[in-house]
Amino acid sequence: MTTITPAAPSTATRLPVKPLALGAAIAAAWLLLDQRGFAIGAFWLIGVAFGVVLQRSRLCFAGAFRDLILLGDGRLFRAILVGLAVATVGFVFLEARLAPDPGFGIAPAGPHIQPVGIATVVGGVLFGVGMVLAGGCVSGSLWRMGEGYVASWVAMAGIVAGTIVANRQWAWWYDNDIRERTAVWLPAELGGYPAALALTLAALAGLYVLVLWWESRTPKMPEFPAPPPEPAFGLREQLRQGWERVWGGHGWSYTTGAVALAVISVFALGLQVPLGVTGGISLWADNVLGWFDAGALPLKGSELLAGCTPGGAEKWFTVRTATMLGLVAGAFTASVLSGEFRLRRPRQRSRYVQAAAGGLLMGYASVIAIGCTIGAFFSSVPSLALAGWVYGIALFGGAWIGVALIRRLP
Amino acid sequence: MELDVRGEMCPYPAMKAREALAKLPAGECLEVLTDHAPALSTVPWEGAKLNYRSTIEPAGRGTWRIRLEPAEGTLDQKQALAEIARRAAELSKG
């Protein structure tokens, strides 16, 4: 069907909102660059890009695990595997510049190479249960907050509460587990980057085939076909169609989103650290408690740990908080530009309880495992860290439990 | 029968639709009211698996009514899937 559709009339009537949303995001970036230095401004923009990508492609990490288990649908999961492979290649180049000789066994600072221990496994399982209960992981909740999902704001309140509790118990986890564990870095174990890269890519490819096999047991949904190309006449029409491809209601494919996210993460690591959001949430939650002399930061021994930690001396504007705020702003901007922003409240009241409880679990888990699906998984596997794999497997186990739980819910 | 899942996001629209269809008396239709765009493909697909044909009409801004009615004969699932995916892409575009 090749009908030429005019520009959607509904967008014309609300036109001023769009330039305003776009202008606000750019103005905020300008302000941060000017006031807080290059890194903060740059990570705000990285956060905005992060939010735009998540909103446009609906790249939901919780859904990736859940739909594979619940519906036998592996489209999201396979897209994330592709994203991980792309990020891995980029990370290897950057790590090889930071630490040309991995034989010394000293991992570069920056990449997310966390210790592997009980906290990694417990954190992964708790996070997996929490994200399925809440209907989105931490980045998923941040992006839907920007899109107007009220339940995601409740989930975020739970996440904040969870990080506050876990920050108080951190010393116990640190003394009894994390302190003694090794941050296993594959290039040091396997005698160089080529072997670590080959092993990681082979494992991702193997998993991809495994997911395809799993999906083949039930008839599966195909990816949305690309909308039929409309004939374009002249520059104006070409530009309009280009705009429609980026901001149109059909969104981007999951794979486009995952690859874009990988590229953003490589840029972020090139600047300083790969993507991560929970460190920023934990820092701000603790700062607010600090007003009442009830802060728990800095975390014991965390200055020696890699991953999504709440950070060091700077109290408010760190690269993590810039990423976190940018993500919400980016998702909001993208949902306004595509006409999808709307306040949405679940009719089922119990969803709020689910969101809060799931958030609490995720918040707690993200502190002890030093990251969420982004910081401890999507940024950790490409860092060639064993922790990312262990966390990912634990996430799967947790998601399995979570699916069993939501099946029994009203 | 009508199922109002407005405000619900994945996976609940599809899960609730599946449960409702399982309880639905033979020959009856189910109408699902949703404001979650991904449900435009997931709900009809749950229907197709149980041999229900689907039609979708807009019901206000960003809200849709998905009507699932029992198919005569057996649905060709492959064809139904392709149709569902194409329609969902077009609907969420407008």
Question: What keyword list fits this structure?
Answer:
heterodimer, A: 410 residues, mainly alpha, 17 helices, 66% helix, disordered N terminus, B: 94 residues, alpha+beta, four-stranded mixed β-sheet, 3 helices
Low-confidence stretches of chain B: none
Helical amount of chain B: 40-55%
Terminal residue distance of chain B:
27 Å
Strand percentage of chain A lies at under 5%
User: What's the helix-strand series of chain A?
Assistant: HHHHHHHHHHHHHHHHH
Rg of chain A, nearest Å: 21 Å
On the 0 to 100 scale, the average pLDDT of chain B is 87
Percent range for helical residues of chain A? Answer: 55-70%
> Looking at the structure, what is the overall shape of chain A?
globular
How many angstroms does the end-to-end distance of chain A come to?
42 Å
Q: Output the structural class of chain B.
A: alpha+beta
- Beta content of chain B comes to 15-25%
Q: Detail the poorly predicted runs of chain A.
A: 1-14
What is the largest interface, and how many residues per chain? A-B, 35 and 33 residues
Largest sheet of chain B: 4 strands, mixed
Order of helices and strands of chain B: EHEHEEH
DSSP E strands of chain A, number: 0
Structure classification of chain A:
mainly alpha
